[in-house]
Amino acid sequence: MKLKIPGIIVVFLPLLAVSQRITYSEAEREDTRALDFEVIGKVSGNILVYKNIRNKNAVSVYDNDMKLKERVDLSYVPDKTINVDFVPYQDFAYLIYQYQKRNTLHCMAVKLDGEAKSMGAPVELDTTYISVFADNKIYSTIFSEDKRQIMIYKIQKKNEKFYFTTHLYDASLNLMHTSRISIPYDEHKDALSDFMLDNDGNFIFTKGLKSSARDLIGKLTLMIKPPAEDNFVGHEINLNTHYLDEVKIKVDNFNKHYIINSFYYRQRHGNIDGLFSLVWNSETKTQGLESVVPFSDTLKMEAKAEGSAKFAFNDYFIRHVVAKKDGGFIVVSEDYYTQSRGNPWNRMDYLYGYPYLSAYDYYLYSPSGYWYSYRPRSFYSSAAQTRYYYDNIVVMNLDKNGKLIWSNVVHKSQFDDETDNYLSYQIMNEGGELHFLFNEVERRNQLLSDQSIVPDGQLKRNPTLKSLDKGYAFMPRFAKQVSAKQIIVPCTFRNYICFAKLDY
Hints:
There is one protein chain. This protein is mostly beta strands. It is built from two helices and 38 strands. The strands form eight sheets. Strands 1, 2, 35, 36, 37 and 38 form a six-stranded antiparallel beta sheet that branches. Strands 15, 16, 17, 18 and 19 form a five-stranded antiparallel beta sheet that branches.
């Protein structure tokens, strides 16, 4: 089968493995590597992918064989849209976007069907007047796990305070409650976690207090805004002389829990010593378990890529937390760092540096839990070349009492210059197994590796999936699971971006 692009030929035969099947989409002429994209999900049996290039917005609709049905131009979305979010359902999806016209920001929503056609005119959700020099990316969208609660919120900083405006909607985008709340905020000492929304409509995050801008968290408060109230209820967490790193929250709706995890230090300027975990019961509004799991020398030796075991976890970051029905949880972390000429890697700068360059960018958190934002390779170009490293993955399974049941290490070694689009991993949760998809090099060939962990902690190495022999390079970190047995993995073919569907 020939592509529309002259001179390129693609064979569309599924690549068979023991338990996986890969089906590729055809690269579209417009989808060069300058493309920004997001996999929306599976809607009415179709795979929808949002695409933006040269300020033009569109949604490509693929059938179950990844054949393009239609590319729908979003003509009603202004060319210079600031931010786009999606809330996908089984039969439709909400597109929520913001744009600026003169000194006014507009937050809009439109309902799309399974063919990416609008099911009505765009609806204005909110507007904000801003000054000339103010930040114009202030709206964010989060939604609950069951998608019955959707929140549009904005944060504006003024006079050492964060001003929150929250709009809570139901699944039909009927407004249920609006709140305007302010909290004290010192950008040099306060660190907010990711923002979450539970199935009851509670808005949740943590607020950490540091002694200085590049210090560790010495005090932690769980902040909860009930759905019909106009205030945050703060619950101080007892850290017992431990110092915390980046804080991650997971909402366990099945057990009515908020699971808080962070790496901890015993000394302010020491090394990461273990995992701090706390569970808050949202039903009884009381603290459940609080546990500290020190990392053993055996785990440190296996986790480290090189160097002393003493520093083994200093470059690790918590990436995923998976809640279990029995009240336990699985914590997945990854070894990550960079090297740049004249700019040495510093964990504190990465976590607590200038917000728009750090992991704590409060305005860009995604409810899906992804911590990445795709950018074309040219985005990374600078005078000082940067090399990205993504190494081993550590998986820890804890019971409902916070005790470590087992741990295991998925070994990998990855690096690339100027871009990390092809590095890191993504999880495919098949229920009985957690699959870890990532690229690895074997005999000069780049393969899509699939290693899975079963409930007893055993690591399985599944048959590798060849990619570069067909000219494809996978970007698994941007993959999105769209059903119980399917995941969509973006990839590049020569100078074009396309998408691969993996069926398990």
